[in-house]
């Protein structure tokens, strides 16, 4: 087998994503101004802790205290749960804020009310309020707020100014020391899943990571948890008991013959794809039922409507590029990769897959490859521009060790080159292995090329392919096979 790999040089790669896909020159200038303001705080990096954000919010007259919240944590699935919750609460007639991270293209994606992103002008105004109480020259470096803390404070200010009825808040990293964890009494807390990701900051073991996630639990506040590994489950259980926090363990929703789901007597059709949405959607329904018990008016009809309308771009997203089908998914850790592979095996059984993958240097590369790759698959590796990317050559060597019978293995200087090669590979049954790729059975759907490995890479794709934009991405969910189980 020929294992020679093309030389990859970062000096040849695009160091930054192309200009954002905006609708006007004015919007582009607004985006650049926001980027410049936030870049001033980027040098402080990721520095988990609550002292800075608490002092910052106190100086702003505590806008977060004006907003009832649902707080959602988890290694995977928390974004989907936030999307479901926000959509249902809006359908129930509540003015609903949603705060999530990271964004795919625009900073404005992170802050939404009833599904509408904050305007650039309103974001500038919220940042004005935050910066009005920051005097960097008077602060030691370790007390200057980080970029995430500044933006999080801006979100609370916006939600308070807009007088939202409720906000759904996604944890940025971990939970215990995350800048979103400043609420003494959220309405309900949710831990969707716990897996091995961000171990460099959260701990090497699942128990340590669970301890960080369980840091969002509050005394006497109802908590919802999805199925967890045993060592994580014991940590969350102990923490809930110590806080006298009522804890509901969620099981995956029941799948009907029609592809609908049933959880706690409510039948619904989720808008998002994948077997893992059985758990994600069930966590959302359980949280909504907790709100019902507190007096919030949320009908079954609102739940059914909201679950069908939830949008979460870049996760099992189907698009057409250059006339070819492309499945986009932000899977960037082993658990998410297993969910992606399960979806493909169930939806396109016995078929080889063409992969287009880029990953950050800090991720679990062996775990992701072991979950995704199978003999006969075709693998194209690209860098993640503008971030600490893993070297595609190093990834290629690792992929060969984990799955030596790949049909094609190539590295590329950038995403566009990788896309062109991947689409060509769909039509050429040639490559590295002596054995041909698995042939799909007659009448089966053809497996698409799959782009995955990093949400930053997905965002770069959307920025490069402006014809899609996030509006298309947010509405392109395939309703005909919501769960992908045959």
The structure class reads: alpha/beta
Count of DSSP H/I helices: 16
Helix content: 25-40%
Q: In terms of per-residue confidence, which ranges show pLDDT below 50 for 5 or more consecutive residues?
A: 1-22, 427-443, 469-486
CATH uppermost class of the largest domain: Alpha Beta
CATH architecture grouping of the largest domain: 3-Layer(aba) Sandwich
Rg over CA atoms, rounded to whole Å, is 22 Å
CATH topology of the largest domain: UDP-N-acetylmuramoyl-L-alanine:D-glutamate ligase
Query: What is the name of the CATH superfamily of the largest domain?
Result: Mur-like, catalytic domain
Terminal CA distance reads 36 Å
State the total count of DSSP E strands. 17
Shape: globular
The biggest beta sheet is recorded as: 8 strands, mixed
Q: Give the number of domains.
A: 2
> Hey, roughly how much beta strand do the residues contain?
5-15%
* Spatial ordering of strands, largest sheet: 4-3-2-5-1-6-7-8
Catalytic activity: (6S)-5,6,7,8-tetrahydrofolyl-(gamma-L-Glu)(n) + L-glutamate + ATP = (6S)-5,6,7,8-tetrahydrofolyl-(gamma-L-Glu)(n+1) + ADP + phosphate + H(+)
EC number: 6.3.2.17
Protein name: tetrahydrofolate synthase
Keywords: ATP-binding, Ligase, Magnesium, Metal-binding, Nucleotide-binding
